[in-house]
Design brief:
This is 2,4-dienoyl-CoA reductase [(3E)-enoyl-CoA-producing]. One of its GO terms (biological process) is fatty acid catabolic process. The protein has 264 residues and is an alpha/beta fold. The protein contains 9 helices and 7 strands; from the N terminus they run βαβαβαβαβαβαααβα. Helix 1 packs across helix 8, helix 3 (76-90) packs parallel to helix 4 (113-141) and helix 4 packs parallel to helix 5. The longest helix is centred in the middle third of the chain and has 29 residues, at 113-141. It is globular. The structure holds hexanoyl-coenzyme A (HXC). Residues 101-104, 106, 112, 114-115, 118-119, 151, 153, 164, 196, 201-203, 205-206 line the site of hexanoyl-coenzyme A (HXC).
Length: 264
């Protein structure tokens, strides 16, 4: 059952088995929903079981075949466990979407070493851990796809985001590296750098709980904040044959820097 606004056929990725980390909420859930609406079987992973159960119930209501795994992307046994679940339940794994992340605002001089390490471990180590544990199944599938969700925070500098900008820029590097090394195995690896996306824990946290969507939209070339469906549809495109020559790319939502550059 595709959303009415989707330009894609509802069966465009029929049968593709997709694993989405952070799939219980926010951008990850939006991606799980959009890919599932277009025929994918979806496994979602996160740390909070109740979120996962609620998310699975919503996906199943839409007719999406789904399963969940409560685990931590930082742990190798959890990464292996969720890949095993996808393969045992649905027979294969075709797409890994790394959307899990942790974030909070913290001035650099007040950020403990453990706080810095924690975000690096969730975001960066989590991405690499998931990729390396999913590699055998993605290779086996013959047309594996990895999508790493990063951010635009690190394209310039962002107040109180030293940990997250370090992690996200490194994720973009990992995306290009794996695209280079795993293209040989038929695996395409791309990133999406979403910018501000409405109704997500990330935007709520970074806006200090205030709804500043209108103010933020003024700095975005397209004139609005993004939606989780925008990121879902971009992920969908990257899974389809239309993107069969695209690997090592990062799809970026241009921000206020681009708008400022416009000539009077
Ligand atoms: C300062 C903090 C802090 C805060 C935690 N720490 N929260 N420091 N300000 N608000 C410090 C702790 O004091 C501790 O250091 C260290 O970080 C580890 O904290 P834990 O709570 O033990 O870690 P953990 O349980 O692993 O929790 C991780 C978390 C958590 C990131 C802190 O908030 C989390 O996972 N949240 C849910 C996911 C999430 O944030 N999603 C949004 C992603 S948005 P000490 O020194 O005391 O031991 C995103 C960007 C999108 O990624 C961009 C949009 C524009």
């Amino acid at each position: 059952m595709a959303d009415v606004n989707s330009p894609f056929k509802a069966n465009v990725i029929a049968g593709r088995v997709v694993l989405v980390t952070g799939g219980g909420s926010g951008i990850g859930f939006g991606i799980a929903k959009t890919l599932g609406d277009h025929g994918a079987k979806v496994v979602i992973m996160g740390r909070r079981e109740q979120f996962l159960q609620d998310a699975c119930a919503k996906l199943e209501q839409r007719g999406i075949e789904t399963a969940y795994y409560a685990g931590d992307v930082r742990k190798e046994e959890d990464a292996k466990g969720v890949v095993d679940l996808a393969v045992s339940k649905f027979g294969r794994l075709g797409t890994l979407v790394n959307s899990a992340a942790g974030n909070f605002l913290a001035p650099a001089e007040e950020m403990s070493l453990n706080a810095f390490r924690t975000v690096l471990e969730i975001d960066l180590f989590g991405v690499f851990n998931m990729c390396r544990c999913a590699f055998p199944a993605l290779k086996e599938s013959g047309n594996g796809v990895i999508i790493n969700i990063s951010a635009t925070l690190h394209y310039s500098a962002t107040w109180y985001q030293t940990h997250a900008t370090a992690a996200k820029s490194a994720i973009d590097s990992v995306t290009r590296q794996l695209a280079l090394e795993w293209g040989t195995y038929g695996i395409r690896v791309n990133g999406i750098a979403p910018g501000p996306i409405a109704d997500t824990p990330g935007l709520t946290k970074l806006s200090g709980g205030r709804n500043e969507n209108e103010k933020i939209a003024a700095g975005i070339p397209i004139g609005r904040v993004g939606t989780t469906q925008d990121i879902g549809l971009t992920s969908l495109f990257l899974c389809t044959e239309a993107a069969s020559f695209i690997s090592g790319d990062i799809v970026v939502r241009l921000g206020k820097e681009a708008k400022k550059a416009k000539k009077a």
